[in-house]
Amino acid sequence: MDGYFEYKGRRIHFTEQGRGVPVVLVHGYLETSEILAGFAKILSGNHRVLSIDLPGHGLSDPYDEIYSMEFMAGSVASLLDHLHIEKAFVAGHSLGGYITLAFAERYARRLTGYCLLHSHPLPEDAEKGEKRNAEISLVSDGKKKYFYPRKYFKALCREEPRKISCRSSAIDRSCFTDTRRYNY
Question: What is the tens place of the pLDDT at every residue in 97-143?
Fold first, then answer.
């Protein structure tokens, strides 16, 4: 089932499938919930799987403000509120891992557990940060087709690439480099 909920005045897209213990899948940087569709299908055999298109990604509305990890984590909490879910297991891929950690920090009582997929709690090194800044510039300049060829979008997205919004320039870049961020 596809649905929408409101978060800070904008529409956020999500999918829901299966029944059981809630699991929220949080996609990564410049991705949509479609990237985790295979996991969702498998997990939905025994779990209630929720996949969110983060603000400014996929079929979710963009915002004019800079997206901090706390802002993104708030969208996950708002999804749980919308569906009247008290606690869930949250799994974050790549950037979604940083968002999952921010969720754990702000909403610990709402977690049954969490998983980082191809992610970690450490800041990015300078080389990775430079690469991400170059990617942000391409997307900001309307050149995301050079970053992800059309066939890549077709493999990941149900919608045509021109319909997919992604405001990577609006993601707070300090979330990738702040060494004080998530030291547990």
Answer: 999 999 999 999 999 999 998 887 767 777 877 777 777 677 667 66
Q: In whole angstroms, what separates CA 15 from the centre of its chain? A: 13
Tokens representing 72 are 């993104």
Q: At 44, list the tokens.
A: 């939905």
Domain that holds residue 69: 2-176
pLDDT at site 85? 98
Stretch (H or E) spanning 129: helix 126-140
Residue 162: pLDDT above 60? Answer: no
CB 165 within 8 A of CB 140: no
Q: Which two tokens stand for residue 71?
A: 């802002």
Rounded CA separation 78/50 (Å): 12
SS3 26: strand
Domain assignment present for 182: no
